[in-house]
Amino acid sequence: MIFVIFGNSLSRCKKKEMELIFIAKPCALGLNIQANGPQKAQPNAILEKVFTAITKHPDEKRLEGLSKQLDWDVRNIQRWFRQRRNQEKPSTLTRFCESMWRFTFYLYVFTYGVRFLKKTPWLWNTKQCWYNYPYQPLTPDLHYYYILELSFYWSLMFSQFTDIKRKDFVIMFLHHLATISLITFSYVNNMARVGTLVMCLHDAADALLEAAKMANYAKFQKLCDLMFVMFAIVFITTRLGIFPLWVLNTTLFESWEIVGPYPSWWVFNLLLLLIQVLNCFWSYLIIKIACKAISKGKAGKWNPLHVSKDDRSDIESSSDEEDSVLPAKNPHNPTTNTNGTSGTSGTNGYLTGGPCAEEH
C-alpha cells in the first residue's frame, strides 16, 4: 500500500505541473495576473553571503557589525534582508496557479465522495458503520477514495518543507500529520465506512476557500467576498455542527453500544478529537476576520480586503519601506566600495526601491 501511495503522490505532482503549465497559467494570464513578485533586493556580495550561509534573520549585534563593515545605516540593512526574504516568496501568478490546482482537486474529490456515499447505507444510518465490524468488505470504490485522499495529504506534507514557510506552519504540519494518521489508522483497522464520512465532510468547504483566493488574486473583490462568506458558512456548519453531532456521535456513542470500546477505538477517537480542536481554532480565525469586516462596515468605511485578507500571509512589510530612498550612515562618501563593485552599483550605502506591497 505504501508504494501505491507514493506512486500516486508522484503521479499527482506530475499532473499538477502539467495543469499549472497548460491550464492554470493561461487562465491567470487571461485574467491579467502577471508574474510580478515582491521587489528584489539590490545585489550585495557581503549581505548575500550572510543571508545564504549564516542567517536570514540577523540579530541586533550582527546588524551593528554589518553596519560598520558596509558603512550602511542599520535601517537599510534591515530593509535589504526583508526584501531578500520576500524575494524568495512566490508571485501572485504562482499563487493563483496553486489555488487553481487545489480547487480542481477539492472539487473533484468532494464530488466523488458525495456520489460514492449517496449509494451507501451508512450515509443515511450511521449505525451501519459498526454492524458486522470488523468484517466489512473493502470495495474498489472505497479503496480508490482512500488512496486518493491519502496520496494528496502526503504530497501536502512533503511540499510543506520545500515551500516557503508560513506563519501557521506548525498548525498545518500538525493538521497534516493528524489527517494522515487518521486516514491510515482507519484504513488499517477497517474503519473505512466512518472514515469516508469524515473525509467527505471535511472536503465540503475547501473548494470554496480556493475559489475565494483565486478571485482575490484576480482582483474580483465582490466575488471573493461572496466566496469567503459561503466558505465561512459551510466550514462552521460542517465542522462545528454536523461533524460533532453526526460523526463524533457515532464514533463515541453508537460504536460503544454496538461493538464496545477496544484499544484502537481510543486512538481513533483521540485523533478525531484532535481534528476537532483544530477545527475550532480555524473557526475562531474565520469569525475574527468576519468581525473585523463587519466593524469596518459599521464605521462607514467598508474595506472588502478585510474579508479576504489571508492571516497566513508570508510577505513581510514595514512602514520603513514607505521611503523610496533612505540615506546611508555616511552620505558624503558615495564612492565607497564594499564588495568589489563600483560605487554606482548601489552597494555603497544607498538602497533604493519602492514599498513592498503586502500580499493579501
From TrEMBL:
DNA-binding region per Swiss-Prot/TrEMBL record: 49-92
Pfam families named in the record: Homeodomain (PF00046), TRAM_LAG1_CLN8 (PF03798)
Organism superkingdom: Eukaryota
GO CC annotation, single: nucleus
GO molecular function per UniProt: DNA binding; sphingosine N-acyltransferase activity
Record field: transmembrane: 169-188, 224-246, 266-287
Region (Disordered): 309-360
Biased composition (Low complexity): 335-354
Compartments it resides in: Endoplasmic reticulum membrane; Nucleus
GO term, biological process aspect, one: ceramide biosynthetic process
Bilayer topology annotation: Multi-pass membrane protein
Keyword Nucleus: yes
Pathway(s) the chain acts in: Sphingolipid metabolism; Lipid metabolism; sphingolipid metabolism
Catalysed conversion reaction: sphinganine + octadecanoyl-CoA = N-(octadecanoyl)-sphinganine + CoA + H(+)
Keywords for the protein's UniProt record, in alphabetical order: DNA-binding, Endoplasmic reticulum, Homeobox, Lipid biosynthesis, Lipid metabolism, Membrane, Nucleus, Transferase, Transmembrane, Transmembrane helix
Segments forming domain TLC: 94-295
Cross-referenced Gene3D superfamilies: Homeodomain-like (1.10.10.60)
Signal peptide: none
CDD domains: homeodomain (cd00086)
Homeobox domain boundaries: 47-91
PANTHER family in UniProt: CERAMIDE SYNTHASE 6 (PTHR12560:SF43), LONGEVITY ASSURANCE FACTOR 1 LAG1 (PTHR12560)
Protein name (record): Ceramide synthase 6 isoform X3
Organism name: Phascolarctos cinereus (Koala)
Gene it is expressed from: CERS6
